[in-house]
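This section describes the prediction task in plain terms. A model, or a person checking by hand, is given the sequence of a single protein chain and must write out its three-dimensional structure as a string of tokens. No templates, partner chains or ligands are provided. The sample shown here is typical of the held-out split.
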Amino acid sequence: METTQIETKTRKLHSDGTYDPNHEFIQPYYLETLQKKEYQEIQEYISNLSDSDYKFNERTEFSHYDGYEDKTIEKYRSCKIHYPKERTILPCIGRHYFHYLNKKFWKYDLEDVFEFQLIKYDIGGNYNWHCDYGTAERPGLIRKLSMSIQLTPPEEYHGGELQVVDYGNRTITIPTHLGTVVVFDSKLPHKVWPVAWGQRISLVGWANGPRFR
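The expected answer:
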């Protein structure tokens, strides 16, 4: 599996090392890192949750029929999900990084409508290839940007890698450093590999806005 660090500088567009100054290349994903205070606030929030605060049902674990290959993929997604309330620390931090990276790079037209989930992947927990792009919970809006924040030290679990397929059809493994924030285009296919041992916790979210025209 390929692991890459996200570059935020302009890429050269031509083989001779030149680029068109009138063309702004936007990467499909960008990385940031949580501030120490943000991570501590999130961990304090998580430490106050009980098992009953995480949901595990037909919405969080399901199989999927693949019509192209004519087969059913068992446990297409398997995880436990906590839905944080609107004004708690998780949505506040998530919004900050959505706004910051969108303003810096994509400049998408977004509404102040976000969705956030705290996801816990135990052994076997996974989410197979999928895209987030599509209608949002509020009618008339779509998911435009997606987010994942790494909240578990990588030495505490094995497996559970988040992968995305970039615009060049390359499969990229997102770094697992503690506090890594990745925001990416919701149209990108992505996957969370099964956790082999330990437990992986991440905060995921979606930024919504009017349909592209």
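For orientation: The mean pLDDT is 91.
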